[in-house]
Structure formats: structure tokens, C-alpha cells
Amino acid sequence: MTHNQQVSANITRLKEKIEAATSQHDLVATIRSLEHHPGPLDYKDKPWQVIGLLFMGLGGLALYSVFSRSLPYEFDYFLSVVLYYSQYWLPVAIVVFWQLWREEKGKAGFLSRHFKTPAQRMAAAGGITLVVVLMPFWGLVYWEGLQILTLLVSGGGFASSEVGLPLLLLVTGGIVCWRLYQRKHWRRPLSERISLLDILFNNGLKALPFKGKEKAKELGQQFKEFIRGNDLREIQHLYQGRYEGKLHRFDYCLYRFHYVVRRTETYTDSKGNSRTRVVRDSYYRHGLLLHFPFSRGLSLNAGSGASFSGEKYTTASNEFNRIFSVCADEEIVAARFLSPAVIEAMLAMAAEYSRPVLEINAGGDLCFAFSNDDILEHKRTYNLESPVEFASEIAKHDELEKLNSLLLQIHNLMRLTDNNFQL
Prior knowledge:
The protein is α+β, with helices and mostly antiparallel strands.
């Protein structure tokens, strides 16, 4: 195995250990193993860095030459020759680099059946590509493809292979540099994963299996809260926990909901022409799902933008009426639920959470949703780049104060409503 292949294999094994962890102790042990890890954990990417920067530099100079026409004649002539013959060398280089990348990932592909070493497979990939680019039709395909690229990038404004080629070089070099940045900082996302698992362990939470879009559709059939946006709707996080209160005990699910609003807007292009384009805005909602056997068919909406059906109800509290819009299947349901104590409790929650919604469906299931930051968020000082300090930090017992506060408030609602009426 090459050095980079060893690094990839070591990182893969590390990820597997983290995902297999069943306790905080397992996470700490895995982190501490990095202090004196037997194999390499950092990639050697200098050749790739040269390639990425070379492509970006060549593309940038080419664009500058196209629009400024101020480069020295000799340099501009050399650049034009390099770019003209790019129809031969660029596809070969891209395929060879792509094969090298696959080799580092241990994915040699079908070429492994006929060629034993990575060098032989890269040479074979380059040779096959060279045969293709030397065919008479290739030049036409290549330059027309670059015109199509500029047509797509400009939104139909213009098509030019002279601009398309520098764009291709910039995009290719940018992808290489971005991927190298991710490889260099692979510890950061893995540290975030460890931190999340630690938070789940510390707070008795368990990740549930689900399919984002299907789960959002299922919840949308139970709660109006999830009928938002006109494009994408998906559940991104779903965790199960249990709350043991003094009077009530209940299971709950903690989730993050993502939805997209698609709209069309008008803009003016560089030539002064009026055009339209589709814009998608993403929004996120967080909340709890649990069974609430003390009421049903009721919604309290604090300006969240969702639409709820039922009979409108107004309380004697002007402050509450200014914040919440109340709908119920029957007016008596809202009247019995909204006692003065519950009204005060809901006002306190409205002061803490952004655009809250409390919805109890006909089956007695409750959804409390809001637009604040994720209550699972927990900041860390260290990460895997400092394994000793990070292990000590993870070893502490960290509780989610925001989650505990929310659960206490839900328990308080149960306490205030458990004797209001019988179902």
C-alpha cells in the first residue's frame, strides 16, 4: 500500500470504531489511541497541490488574457498554444489523476483484472484516453462541449469555447484544492461526530433509523407543522429519549426539520435585459414529539407561518392573544386546556423559543416546534488535532441544558392539564 492508501485505511478503521462505540468510555479510548497511532494519519498531497494550483493559475491567466488582452506577446502566444492543444493533454491528465485518486481509495476498477500495479493502471487509463482524443471527431466534441459549459454557466447569456476552457480549468483545479482541504482537515468533521455521539450518550438519547423525505411526509399526515414550503421537506435528525418526571414519565423524539421555499425572482443581467430565475430558500425547525393524553385537536401558533384549521379561540389574556393564534376542533377543548396557569406557561415558552407551535392532533400526540438554533448544539474547545485534551473534554459528563429545560416545561404542561378534563 502507498502512504496515502495507508492513511485512508487507518481513517476508515477509526471511523468504524467510532460508529461502533456504545458508551462514552469507548469514544475516549478511541481518541486516546491517536496519541501514539501505529500508522500514518496525514496525507502527503504536495503533488496534488501543485496540480490544483497549476490548473487554477492557468485558468485564471487564460480568463485574464481573454478579457484584458494585455499580456506580453510571447507569454500570450505560449498560453494560446498550451490551451489550443488542451484537447489532447487535458482529458488524458484528468483521467490519469482520477485513476490515481481511485488507487488511493483502493478502488482500482476493472483495470485491476489486467494490470497489477497502480502505475500500469494509470498508464493504461491514460493510453485509452489518448486513443479517444486522437480520433477525428474528438476536437469537435471537445470545443462544442466547452461552449455548452459557458452557456450553462452564463445562464444562456453566451457560448464561447475561449471562455469555457479557462472555466473548466478553474473548476477542475478548484475541485482538487477543495478536496485536498477536506483531506487535510479530516479530523474536524470526525470530531463533530464524536462530540454528537458523546452528547447522545450523556443525555440518554438514541439515534433512530429513518428516511428523511418519507419521515417528513409521514409526520405531515399527523401534524400541520410539517406542511411547510413548496419544494423539499425532510427530517434531518431524529433521536429518541425518555423523561422521568416527578408526576409524569414519557418517551419523546427530538428532531430537526428542513424545508425549502421555491420562488421565482426577476433580475437584470449584464446587458440590461430583464430575466427570471428560480431561487430556493432553506429553513429549519426543531422540536419534540410525544404522546400527550390530556387534550387533542388543538393548536397554538405564535406566528410561525403554518396554517391550522378549526374553530378560532380567544382567551381573556390580551398578551397571549397578541402572540398566539389558537385553533381547536371544538371550542370547549381550547377553553379547558388554556387555564390561566397554562397561559402563563405558554407565554414563558414564547419568550424563550422563536415562533413556537404547540400542536396536539386528534390521536393525542403532541408536537412542540420552534425556529431557534438546534438544542443539541454543544461547543467544544478541542478536537482530534489535540487528542489528549479532546479525550479529557469528552470524558466529562455534559448535559443539554436547553433540552432539559424544554422537557421540564412540557412536564409542567402535563401537570397543569392532567386534571382539566377526561378523554
